[in-house]
Write a structure and sequence with these properties.
Blueprint lengths: L2 E4 L4 H11 L10 E3 L12 H8 L3 E4 L6 H6 L1 H21 L3 E7 L24 H19 L4 E6 L2 E2 L6 H15 L3 E4 L3 E2 L2 E2 H14 L6 E4 L6 E2 H11 L7 E4 L30 H22 L1
Parallel strand pairs: 1-2, 1-3, 3-4, 4-5, 5-10, 6-9, 7-12
Antiparallel strand pairs: 8-11
Helix pairs in contact: 1-7, 4-5, 6-8, 6-9
Length: 306
């Protein structure tokens, strides 16, 4: 199977390439990495020509503008990158009957839920910010394209991604803890935002399962996250434990302590849906334990470079 990955140079894109390289389903040619030069969110151009050139049979659209504060500052640009670009690519893929997998976000939900349950795919959507609105517009554009075309469509919502690449939440927490330790001050951590931290390597394996094993059928929406729920503060303390920095005291604070252009959902928890292989993603703490050595090396390298 010839599988193309947009955003191949990003955090999730690199994890997808690694997962697909180990999958026998992609054959000796392996996955097809599409970088910005192949598909530019600002200038989608004629993606059908690229699909034909690479003889693509399935595509995972991992490229997106995920700077939520940037999206809040420029909602029009967010819509162009996260919705209009999806529309162009999905229409070209649907015209060719290509399996299209769109990676989306928990921020299509307003986060005001108070019953302690995770959001299900069929629950009403109401984005609390321009980033979530742009991703929802992308979902709807892909759905419309596949209603008019052919092939399979899967929308995959996820949350709080972490893994190698540009500084993620765990990396930033360890850096902030170092500063707090130097200042002799507690590390202030947000205690009123909840979701499921999700390891990109685990998400990538789930996406490969979906591409390879999905039975033909109507468009479907999936919630794919590591098991378990955490607040930002819970996550930060686990990062400190794994990073051997438990001597740094923490102080729980509300999210309003850091005013920002974007408003994230306070309850951003997704209820996981079953994948074709039937195996749920493991608990986020187990995933963090696997990631910890990589994280510690990255932080050490950054410290040495300063």
């Amino acid at each position: 199977m010839r599988v193309a990955i947009t955003g191949a140079g990003g955090r999730l894109g690199r994890a997808l390439i690694a997962a697909l390289e180990e999958s026998p389903a992609t054959g000796p040619g392996g996955p097809i990495p599409w970088t910005r030069a192949d598909f530019d969110l600002d200038e989608p151009g004629r993606p059908g020509e690229r699909l034909d050139r690479d003889r693509v049979e399935a595509i995972i659209h991992a490229a997106a503008w995920t700077d939520v504060d940037g999206c809040a500052r420029d909602p029009s640009l967010a819509l162009r990158r996260n919705a209009d670009a999806v529309d162009a690519l999905a229409r070209a893929a649907a015209e060719r009957g290509i399996h299209f997998v769109l990676v989306s976000t928990n921020e299509v939900f307003d986060g005001e839920r108070t019953d302690g349950r995770g959001y299900r795919p069929e629950d009403p959507v109401s984005p609390p910010n321009p980033y979530g609105a742009s991703k929802l517009a992308g979902e709807r554009a892909a759905t419309a394209a596949y209603e008019a075309g052919a092939g399979d469509l899967d929308i995959v919502r996820t949350s709080w991604l972490f893994g190698p690449g540009a500084p993620d939440f765990p990396t930033k927490i360890l850096a902030a803890a170092e500063r707090a330790r130097a200042d002799g001050a507690p590390l202030r951590v947000v205690s009123d935002e909840w979701s499921s931290p999700t390891y990109v390597a685990d998400l990538a394996e789930a996406l490969v399962d979906l591409v390879v094993n999905r039975p033909p059928g109507p468009p479907a929406t999936h919630h794919v996250v590591n098991a378990g729920v955490a607040s930002r503060a819970d996550w930060a303390r686990e990062v400190l434990r794994l990073g051997a920095m438990t001597d740094v005291a923490t102080e729980d604070v509300p999210s309003t302590s850091w005013p920002r252009p974007s408003t994230p959902p306070r309850w951003g928890v997704l209820e996981p849906t079953e994948l074709p292989g039937g195996e749920p993603l493991r608990d986020w703490r187990g995933a963090m334990a696997d990631y910890a050595p990589v994280l510690r090396r990255a932080v050490a390298a950054a410290s040495a470079a300063r």
